Every structure is written in C-alpha cells, then in structure tokens.
Amino acid sequence: MICHCPDQIRAAADTYTTRTKENKDMQNEDRSEQRSRFSRFINNDNTVGYIFAAPFIIGFFAFTLVPMIMSFYYSLTDYKITAAPVWAGLKNYIALVQDSHFLNSMLVTVQYVIIGVPLKLVFALLIAMLLTHAKKLQGFYRAVYYIPSLIGGSVAVALVWKQLFSSEGPIVKLIQSMGVERFSFFGNAHFAFLPLVIGNAWQFGSSMLIFAAGLKQISTDYYEAAMIDGASAVKRFFSITLPILSPIILFNLVMQLISGFMTFTSAFVITKGGPNEATNYVSLFIYNNAFQYHRMGYACAISWVLLLIIALVTLIIFKTSNNWVFYESEQ
Amino acid sequence: MKKKVLATLLSAGMVCSALAGCGGSAGSTSTETAASTEAPAAEEAPAANDLAGTTIRFAWWGSQPRHEATTKVVEQFMAETGINVEYEFYDFNGYFTQLDTLAAADDVWDVFQMGNNWAQYHEIIEPLNPYMESGAIDTTDISPAIVQVTQDYDGQQMGLSLGTNCRCLVYNPALFEQAGVAEPTDSWTWDDFKTASEQIIANTDAQYGMDKIEYMDIMTAACAQMGEGYNFFAMDGSDFAFKDDLSGITKMFDIFGGMMKDGSIADPGVQNEITDEQADYICTGKSAMLMIPSNKFVALSEACAANGVTLKLALLPKLTSSSQSGMLVRSSQMVSMAKSSKNKEAAAMLIDYLVNNISANEILNGERGVPANAKVLSALAAKSDEITAQMYEFVNKVGSIPDTKNTTNAEPAAQAEVKATIQTYFERYYAGDFSTAADAAAAFYEEAKQVFANYEG
Given this model, what pLDDT does residue B180 score? Predict the structure, then answer.
C-alpha cells in the first residue's frame, strides 16, 4: 500500500520519535527487569525440574522415541539394511500373521512367561519372608541374594549357565548317573527351556527387595490380633500378608511380565533359539530377522506387534486388578 | 601483542612445514628417476608420499592367531606407506552385526573382509574393476579363475580373494586303524561314512563319528553330486538348482538325521555347544571326523597336536562311488572396498598390499587360505611346514578335479535364512516330526521355496 497523505506520514513520524524516546528512558529499567525475569524463569520449579530431567529427556528422545518412530516407518517398508527402504504398506504385518515361525516364537515366549514369572515371584516372596524373620546378618543375606540380579542379565552368567547345564556339565552328569541315558537339556526340545526359566528365577533379587520393603510396612498389630484369635501361620499368611502385599505383587508382576516377554540374552547365548525353535523367543526372532536375514522391515513389524501384546497384557492385568488388589488406604 | 607474536610464529611454522613437504616430494621424485630400473621400489615411493597422512579404516573377523598376524601386517603397511589405518576385528557374528549397523548408517569401513555371502552386501561394495585396470591393484600374478571367483554375475569385482579353500573331511587315522576300518578314499560314499562311524564308535573310545553337521555344505555337496547341471543353488544364485529332484537332500536327511538319531552324530544341543574348532571332540580323540574349510586345517591340527592327535585330509564322501566330487576351490574370504569410502586410492593400496605383498603374506602365512597370488604362494610354499604343505597340496588336488567347475559357489541373499531352515528341519527330523527322510526333505523344500521368494526383487 502506498500512502499519499502527508498527515499520516507526520503522525507516523511522531509516534516513532516518541517511542524511541520512551525506549531510551526505559532502557535501564528494562535491563533490570530482564534480569529478574530471567532469574524468575530459572528459579521456577518447573524449569528446575526440566533441567534436572534433561539428561533423561534428551536420552529418551534420541534413543527411544526417535528410534521407535523410525522403526514404525520401517515396519511399513522392505528394508534390507544395505539398501534404502522401499514402501511396502502392510505387507510385513500380513506376512507376520501367516508366519508359523512367528506364531511358534510367540507361543514359546508365552510358555516362558507363564512358567517363569510365577516361579520367580514365589521364590522372591519366599526368600523375602525368610529374611524378614531372620534377625542376624539380615542385611548381609539380603545383599548376597541380590547379587545374581546385579549380574544376572549379563553374557558372563549366561555362559556359566550354559556350562552348568551342558552335556558335559555337572547337572546333566548327575541326572545321567541316576540312570537316565543320553539325557541332555539343550538337545531336547521339551527340556531346553528349563535351564533358561531357572536361570531367570535365580535372578529374583530385585523383586525380593521390593517384597521385603512391602513386608516391613505391614503393621505387627494385625498379626498380634490374629494370633490372639488363634489364627494359624498359614491363615495369617493368606488373610493378612497376601492381601496387604497385593499392590506390591501387582507391581512386581507387571515388571516381570514385561521383562519376561523381552527375554533375549540367555536364549541368544545358550541355545541360539534351538533345538527345533523351542527357545526361539520373540526378541531373538526379531534379532535374527534383522541382523541375520536382513529383513529389518519385518523385524520392526514384529517389534510393534510385541509392543501391542505387552501393552494389552498389562492393560488386562490392571483392569482385573480391582478384583484382587487390596489398598489399605481405601478401606 | 602476545597474540600477534603467536600468530606469526604459527604461520612461520606452517611455511616451514610446507617447504619441508615440497622438499620431501622433490627428493622422492629424484630417487624415482634414479632407481627406475628397480620397478617395485620406485612404484611404492611416490604413491606413499601422495597419500601419506590419510586415514582409512579396515576390519576383519577371525580368531586370535589371525588377529595377531593381521595387526602386524597393518602396522607394517602403516610404516611403509605413511597411511594411517584404524583397524577393528571381531568374531564372525559380531563382525556381521557391526557391518550391518555401519551399512545402515552408510559409514562402512573403507576396507573390509567379506565372505562368499557378498550378495547380501552388494549395495555397499565398491567394484574393484577400475582400480585393477589402472594398476592400483595388481592382479597380474593371480590366475584369472581366482580373480573371477569373487566377481558378481555381471563381472563386477566384489573384492579380491585373500586365499582359497575347499570343503574337506578331516579324520583321525589312529581311530580308523584301531577300529579296523579302511581310511576314506576318493570314491568313498556317504554310506561308507556312516558304516565307518558306527564301527569306530563300537570298537574304540570315540563317542561320535562326527560331532557337528555343516548343514549348508552337505546340501551343496550332495546336490552337486547328483550329476552335471545339478546344484543346491543355481550358479548365479537366482534359484535352487536341483530341478525338484529331492534324492540328494533326502539322502542327507537319511544319513545325517539318522546318525543324529542313533547317536553317532552329536545331538543339536551338543552341536550348539561346540563354538570353535579348538573345542571340537575330534581334538581329544572323542570324535573321528569333521568337515571344515581347508584353511582351518593348520589351526585345528595344532589344537589336536596338544592331545597327541594327528589328522589327515580327505575328499567329501559321495552319493555313489562314481558320482561327481561335489567339491570346488573357492575364495575363502576376500577384501572389499566400501562404496562410501572417501579415500579409495589409499584403500586400493591396502587391498593390493594384503593380496600381493610377499612379506605381508609371510606373516599371514596362509591362515585365510591358499594365497591367490602365484608368486606369494611359491614364496610361502618354499618355507611351509609339513601340515601347511599338506593343506596346499590338498587344495591343489581338488583344483585339478575336472568336475569341480560344475559345483556352485553362489551364496544368494536368502542363503542365511535357508541355512537356518535346513538346520530346523534336521532338528525336527531328529525330534521325530517326520516318519521318513523323504517326508522331511519334501517339507523342507516347501518352506525353502517360500523363504527364497521373500528375497526376490
């Protein structure tokens, strides 16, 4: 727009000069205000929170969120790693449903979870209860039982486990000496999962610590009252300990289910998924497809299906938890 | 003021070093003209100065002796040429996982070791043809047949062989003698192999005839043995090539699956426990035979010698005593250049050095296979010990079998998954999922076809 009116120009010029003048007057004031605004910003609780959380947030975006979004894109492509991904639509997901190897890997994973997780939780609770009763060297024993959890996920432990249960290992030799000929864990599709499940249960330490903390929270008043009424130890366990501990059981159950579904190291190191795919757990199946067969797109699709399944199982457990989890505060 | 002084000093330093650089190259040019009669020395000197200071990355997989020897060779290369080489080494699986990650990031090592599975990595490999034509990589002393072995089907040079090998059967002659069984001959059949295993187990302390199955190798051999024109994979890797005739594959299920069932071959769990040759039952005399690539014969013999076991080499057994050998001399592994490399000239120099340099190969000592370069081979053969000589002689013998040209060397992109599928079906057969070997073979073929189809296009 071109302006022809001199009045308007004058008016505009006036406004400009006044503003500059005002600005000059306010400069000093501005600076101090800016500083205080900055210090207000930096001392704000939210800012402080975000700054302290920044390492995690940055890590989450760089190493979790971005890769997740990328993997979702790859799951819709044919991606052979060495060449650029080619759009394939839902092809990978359709192939997945028809793939008997995937269904088998899902099945053995569910088997692993159903047998492994309760075993681990029962074991953890048992030891936790033993340790709350033991007064001498309680801290020492707790630390000792926690050690397997610290080193449990490592390759080194998996290698030790492989030796223990191998055809020349002490456990197989013991079974053979009892008269079972040609017995082997890893050569037999029915038994190969057992050492892996036991290995997982052996790493009960972190669940145990959480249980132990929960047990300490239970007021002794309940037990004393029950004992006066003549309740047996078993009755006390099922009527007092279990109900009050149930929120903690829920927490441990969900955590262990998720890690159970993602089990990888022991199968990768010890059995390579065999024999006859009996220990070909989903994570290992994903790894093989991605890095052995170069079907990265397919592997990403399986990862997303696994994510959905874990989310679904968790959701079901949370929804049904109203029926069996008891919160003291709500009563 | 201080800053100015510093800047002047620094720029003075730069001028000096630039002058020195000029002086250096001038000096070498004069040596070149002076020593033009001594061709090799003159060739190396100027090239070294051009590329000195550049940095390339080099990686390989292997076991401890290979890591030590290759590291030494790389150090020597750096000292001679002034090119910096950052090297990494891994075990076989770790190597390919790392390579995949780098390939996804388009940041592959400039020079890297590659197997016959190059089809999976075709996109990231720089063909060497231009460097061979320019003479940067010298192939005059390598027989055309060996150069060709590492080309793709369009004649693109995917790499140069670091050594050749062939599949072979090694056996412990002492166990054969103890059991009163005749040693393997060139017309030995798979049935003979099975009978010998059973007799050895019955009459000696040996636990197994063979403890580990090389699934891909037995399939490749058996299909090629069916006759000229038959193979497991087609020569160009485009398809299977046993013409829907499953007799060879059925025979393998029958022999190896059957032996696994009756215990003369170790069960899948034990097979999985044997992670390297040094841990093999053959080293302790607990197993009589093993299939290995010939270049591993020296290391395996050394591991066996510690227990007083000596080994001999034999051709693979055949379907019938008169069938084709099913064997071939192939590149055991090669060096390739990355398409993404920014220093391709320096990379070419390293490849040339690894393949052609005699002193380098004296350090490597044929551990990767029989050297491809004829001059290198004769230099090494002159100094080799008895076991190495036995290996050279064996590969030479296999090379002279006329029907080896009929055996496929192809490892198409589907190979890794097909191989896993073979193993799964052997384990299913072992577990009793199929009543006959023919059923297992038919079911395997159905699935293998599907697997192959996933990799087309």
Answer: 94
Nearest to A275 among B120, B121, B427 (CB): B427
Query: Which chain A residue's Cα is nearest to B272?
Result: A271
Check CB contact under 8 Å for B420 and A295. Answer: no
Residue B269 to residue A192, Cβ atoms within 8 A:
yes
Residue A210 has pLDDT above 50, yes or no: yes
Instruction: List the single residue in A with minimal CA-CA distance to B425.
Output: A276
Residue of chain A with shortest Cα separation from B451? A293
- Residue B23 in domain: no
Selection from A145, A280, A115 nearest residue A209 by Cα = A145
Mark yes or no for CB contact B417/A292 under 8 Å.
Answer: yes
Q: Looking at residues A144-152, what average pLDDT do you find?
A: 78
Q: B26: which residues sit within 8 A by CB, 6+ positions away? A: none
Q: Smallest CA–CA separation between A8 and chain B, in Å?
A: 56
Verify that B317 and B388 share a domain, yes or no.
Answer: no
Residues A185 and A45 in one domain: no
Residue range A182-190: average pLDDT?
85
Which of A80, A187, A293 lies at the smallest CB-CB distance from B270? A187
Mean pLDDT score, B424-448: 94
Tokens of B109: 């090592």
- Residue A137 and residue A42 share a domain: no
Is residue A1 in some structural domain?
Answer: no
pLDDT digits (tens, 9 = 90+) for B216-233: 999 999 999 999 989 999
From A276's Cα to the closest Cα of chain B, the distance in A is 5
Q: Which residues of B touch A185 (CB under 8 A)?
A: 269
CATH of the domain at B351: 3.40.190.10
User: Chain A: residue nearest B262 by CA?
Assistant: A182
Which of B100, B124, B259 is the best residue to mutate to test the A interface, defined by the most A CB atoms within 10 Å of its own CB? Answer: B100
Average pLDDT over residues A292-307: 94
Q: Decide if A104 contacts A284 (C-beta within 8 A).
A: no
CATH of the domain at A148: 1.10.3720.10
C-alpha to C-alpha distance for B300 and B277, rounded to whole angstroms: 6
A contact set with B (CB within 8 A): 80-83, 95, 162, 166-168, 182, 184-189, 192, 271-272, 274-277, 288, 290-296
- Is the separation of the CB atoms in B195 and B203 below 8 Å? no
Same domain, B133 and B265: no
**Are B269 and A277 an interchain contact pair (Cβ–Cβ within 8 Å)?**
no
Q: What is the pLDDT of residue B42?
A: 38
Lowest-pLDDT range, A124-133, A203-212, B272-281? B272-281
Same-domain check for residues A225 and A248: yes
Residue from A71, A78, A81, A295 to probe the interface with B (highest B Cβ count within 10 Å): A81
Domain containing residue B212: 167-329+396-454
Q: Please check whether residues B193 and B48 belong to one and the same domain.
A: no
Q: Span A144-162, mean pLDDT? A: 81
Give CA–CA dist A149/A132, Å, rounded.
19
Task: Flag whether B216 is in a domain.
Answer: yes
Per-residue model confidence as pLDDT tens digits over A109-134:
999 999 999 999 999 999 898 888 76
Same domain, residue pair A46 and A136: no
Q: Are residues B56 and B156 in the same domain?
A: yes
Residues 6+ apart with CB under 8 A from A10: none
pLDDT score at B146:
86
Residue among B291, B258, B238, B253 at smallest CA distance from B445: B253
Contact (CB<8Å) B268/A186: yes
C-alpha B70/C-alpha B59 separation (Å) is: 10
- Angle at which helices A91-98 and A296-324 cross, to 10°: 70
Q: How far apart are the first and last CA of chain B?
A: 68
B46 band by pLDDT with thresholds 50, 70 and 90 = very low
With CB atoms and an 8 Å threshold, state whether A272 touches B420. no
| B446 in any annotated domain | yes
Do B266 and B317 have their domain in common?
Answer: yes
